[in-house]
């Protein structure tokens, strides 16, 4: 069965840092269920071969398991963890980073009648069953990890095939928007990047909407459709994730960390941090001293 070969290949080539010898291809192997962790999703297709995972984005929850894949078409702040993993049956996942330029190139080669019309603004995330054709392409790509002579020539071709399977699949609209330079999702993605780059400063939604080329009402509606959050809620998520990373290296400077990520009120920072991570900044900083917060995409 395809899924059995997929599991074998993933288990064989998994590394602690998720990377592989093929650009943009990631592999995860998790042998124990871990507590939910916060990170950025990246723009990625994540396929599970064994185990199950749960991802929270704003007020939406996505669950996917063996034979299913999740698409993230915008780099979003998420909380996720494997819900099924063990030493005898580790969770195994495949990831392919989605590059907008690569998606756009595939779209340019498609005939207009090959694709369903792209309408509205899709969510930035979606889950589907993997087709046999998609599984077959992923397996052939992973086989190249054992075929270094063929890898440079064939890996780009198979990655394009995988993109085509995604573009023409059930969640094709989510992927297609990633490669369309003037789509509403692309405009929201630009606003997401701006908020991430300027997370510590206050902003008016009208100003960010203007940068995105939308009216304030259309921007707010589309932003919420894509991210499951308002722009202000999104900024708060980014601030708290950045604060947690800073606390790992500055555990005694809680007030300073809160100020650096944009909080004028230490009490508000502590209150929102506890609500997000289940512990006060000082308690969480003590817990983090022996570990490093997760910074790699949490979907894979």
TrEMBL record:
<dbReference type="InterPro" id="IPR009057">
    <property type="entry name" value="Homeodomain-like_sf"/>
</dbReference>
<feature type="region of interest" description="Disordered">
    <location>
        <begin position="276"/>
        <end position="300"/>
    </location>
</feature>
<dbReference type="InterPro" id="IPR009594">
    <property type="entry name" value="Tscrpt_reg_HTH_AraC_N"/>
</dbReference>
<dbReference type="InterPro" id="IPR018062">
    <property type="entry name" value="HTH_AraC-typ_CS"/>
</dbReference>
<keyword id="KW-0805">Transcription regulation</keyword>
<dbReference type="InterPro" id="IPR018060">
    <property type="entry name" value="HTH_AraC"/>
</dbReference>
<dbReference type="Pfam" id="PF12833">
    <property type="entry name" value="HTH_18"/>
</dbReference>
<keyword id="KW-0238">DNA-binding</keyword>
<keyword id="KW-0804">Transcription</keyword>
<dbReference type="Pfam" id="PF06719">
    <property type="entry name" value="AraC_N"/>
</dbReference>
<protein>
    <submittedName>
        <fullName>AraC family transcriptional regulator</fullName>
    </submittedName>
</protein>
<feature type="domain" description="HTH araC/xylS-type">
    <location>
        <begin position="189"/>
        <end position="287"/>
    </location>
</feature>
């Amino acid at each position: 069965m395809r899924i059995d070969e997929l599991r074998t290949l993933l288990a064989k080539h998994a590394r602690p840092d998720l990377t592989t010898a093929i650009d943009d291809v990631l592999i995860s192997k998790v042998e124990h269920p871990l507590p939910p962790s916060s990170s950025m999703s990246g723009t990625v297709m994540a396929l599970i071969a064994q185990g199950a995972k749960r991802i929270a984005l704003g007020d939406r929850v996505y669950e996917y398991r063996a034979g299913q894949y999740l698409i993230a078409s915008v780099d979003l702040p998420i909380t996720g963890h494997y819900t099924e993993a063990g030493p005898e049956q580790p969770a195994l996942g495949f990831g392919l980073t989605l590059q907008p330029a690569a998606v756009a190139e595939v779209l340019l080669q498609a005939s207009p009648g090959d694709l369903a019309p792209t309408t509205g603004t899709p969510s930035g995330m979606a889950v589907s069953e993997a087709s046999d054709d998609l599984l077959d392409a992923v397996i052939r790509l992973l086989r190249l990890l054992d075929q270094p002579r063929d890898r440079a020539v064939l890996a780009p071709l198979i990655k394009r095939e995988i993109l085509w399977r995604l573009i023409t699949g059930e969640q094709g609209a989510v992927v297609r928007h990633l490669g369309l330079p003037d789509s509403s999702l692309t405009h929201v993605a630009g606003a997401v990047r701006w908020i991430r780059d300027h997370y510590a400063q206050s902003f008016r939604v009208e100003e960010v909407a203007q940068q995105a080329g939308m009216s304030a009402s259309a921007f707010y509606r589309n932003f919420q459709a894509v991210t499951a959050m308002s722009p202000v809620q999104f900024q708060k998520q980014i601030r708290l994730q950045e604060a947690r990373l800073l606390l790992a290296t500055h555990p005694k400077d809680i007030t300073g960390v809160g100020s650096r990520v944009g909080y004028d009120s230490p009490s508000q920072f502590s209150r929102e941090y506890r609500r997000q991570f289940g512990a006060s900044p000082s308690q969480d900083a003590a817990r983090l001293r022996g570990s490093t917060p997760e910074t790699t995409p949490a979907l894979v």
